[in-house]
Amino acid sequence: MSLGGDWDPGSVTGFDDDVRAEGEPEREFHAGVAARLPRKSVSGGALVRDTAGLVLLLRPTYKPTLEIPGGVAEAGESPLAACRREVKEELGLALPIGRALVVDWIPVHGPWPDQLAFVFDGGVLDAATVARMVPDPVEVAGVEFLTLAAATDRLRPSMARRLAAAVVAAEAGETVYAEFGRPV
Predict the structure, then answer these.
(1) 3-class DSSP state for residue 80?
(2) What distance in Å separates the CA atoms of residue 184 and residue 176, rounded to the nearest whole number?
(3) Mean pLDDT of 159-176
(4) pTM exceeding the 0.85 threshold for the entire prediction
(5) Distance (Å, whole) CA 172 – CA 144
């Protein structure tokens, strides 16, 4: 069985059967060990471009730096499902989110736990699709299509590195593993 770039466990017939086939979770050898394991947050964002190759960036209402569409996964939600949900919420579009471009580990930073940030291919939007975009006014103050060079001083440095890796991965047909935006 091939698990190509279009594989989505939520849309594959039999996914629930696969989960049931795993059987009961193994019992803890020592009670309470599972509760003491560290927790990471997981996010899914989309690299979305226009026909000129410019990157879609959001001006969030809740932070000073630009972001890509996407967000943190809810409990029990995959990074891909989180990306699709957040893109629809933030842009008002159900985009065909494609393969993973970057998996990036982000270290603990202030009050924020470490995180695995996935960047998926959000595709290329034509002018008609851009015109149908309805940004969520609660979360999105505006959207811009920019080159990464033009956006660098408005992005966190790690996001600028992550997006640069995502653009390279999209062009090369690869998936990149990075740590704090630096491909390893």
Answers:
(1) helix
(2) 8
(3) 98
(4) yes
(5) 25
